[in-house]
């Protein structure tokens, strides 16, 4: 018998719910988790436990959080933590001169780190989709020029890691 995909709250995904919606929720959750780790100093295991038991698929402070694809969420968060020393210089190079990653708001650092990780390691997701999804995530937190910066940085990184996708048109 095929194993049913589980959401981040370990409940089966509703039949009408699309994989893309669960992945989008996982991306948003990953960015929130990375932000919390960055500003609050929380550890990976604590973050996983908190998000899996209290946030996703639940109502928190009046907001209903969507179920998320647990494996995808964990992959992005743990991958960014593992590869951050490699990802940060890539993002720094893609940022405009005079704007090192350390000067960028913590939530945008989390967005760009997650996007850069996914571009490098999640070849199952087209690069343009990754960039678009993380621009959408950024839009949940900031407006205007900041989302343009996220788009430009991730597009540059995408062309570095996935040049073949862009050469095909």
Please write out the topology.
Blueprint: H1 19-40, H2 44-55, E1 59-60, E2 63-64, H3 70-94, H4 106-121, H5 127-139, H6 145-161, H7 163-167
Antiparallel strand pairs: 1-2
GO molecular function: RNA binding
Pfam families: NusB (PF01029)
InterPro entries: NusB-like_sf (IPR035926), NusB_fam (IPR011605), NusB_RsmB_TIM44 (IPR006027)
Describe it.
The structure is a single chain. The chain has 169 residues and is an all-alpha fold. The chain has one domain (19-163): NusB-like (N-utilizing Substance Protein B Homolog, Chain A). Helix content is 65%, strand content 2%. The protein has helices at residues 19-40, 44-55, 70-94, 106-121, 127-139, 145-161, 163-167; strands spanning 59-60, 63-64. Strands 1-2 form a two-stranded antiparallel sheet. Helix 4 (106-121) runs antiparallel to helix 5, helix 4 packs parallel to helix 6 (145-161) and helix 5 packs antiparallel against helix 6. It starts with 18 loop residues before the first helix and ends with a helix.
Short description:
With 169 residues, the chain is mainly alpha-helical. The protein has 7 helices and 2 strands. The protein has a single domain (19-163), classed as NusB-like (N-utilizing Substance Protein B Homolog, Chain A).
Order of helices and strands: HHEEHHHHH
CATH architecture: Orthogonal Bundle
Major beta sheet, strand line-up:
1-2
CATH topology: N-utilizing Substance Protein B Homolog, Chain A
Described by the principal axes of the CA atoms, the overall outline is: globular
Q: What is the assembly state of the chains in this entry?
A: single chain
Average pLDDT? 82
Radius of gyration, in Å, reads 16 Å
Q: Could you estimate the helical fraction of the residues in percent?
A: 55-70%
Number of strands: 2
- Poorly predicted regions: 1-17
**What amount of the residues lies in strands?**
under 5%
The structure class reads: mainly alpha
Output the CATH class name: Mainly Alpha
Query: Termini, distance in Å?
Result: 40 Å
How many domain regions?
Answer: 1
Specify the biggest β-sheet: 2 strands, antiparallel
Pfam families: NusB
Organism: Rhodopseudomonas palustris (strain BisB18)
Protein name: Transcription antitermination protein NusB
Family: Belongs to the NusB family.
């Amino acid at each position: 018998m095929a194993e049913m995909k589980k959401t981040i709250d370990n409940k089966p995904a509703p039949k009408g719910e699309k994989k893309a919606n669960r992945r989008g929720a996982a991306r948003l959750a990953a960015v929130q988790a990375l932000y919390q780790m960055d500003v609050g100093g929380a550890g990976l295991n604590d973050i996983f436990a908190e998000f899996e038991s209290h946030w996703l698929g639940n109502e928190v402070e009046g907001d209903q959080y969507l179920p998320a694809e647990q494996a995808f969420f964990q992959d992005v968060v743990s991958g960014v933590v593992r590869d951050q020393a490699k990802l940060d210089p890539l993002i720094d190079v893609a940022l405009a001169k005079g704007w090192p990653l350390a000067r960028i708001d913590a939530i945008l650092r989390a967005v760009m780190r997650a996007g850069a990780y996914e571009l490098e390691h999640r070849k199952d997701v087209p690069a343009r989709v990754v960039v678009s999804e993380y621009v959408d995530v950024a839009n949940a937190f900031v407006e205007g020029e900041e989302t343009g910066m996220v788009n430009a940085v991730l597009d540059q990184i995408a062309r570095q890691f996935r040049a073949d996708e862009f050469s095909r048109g």
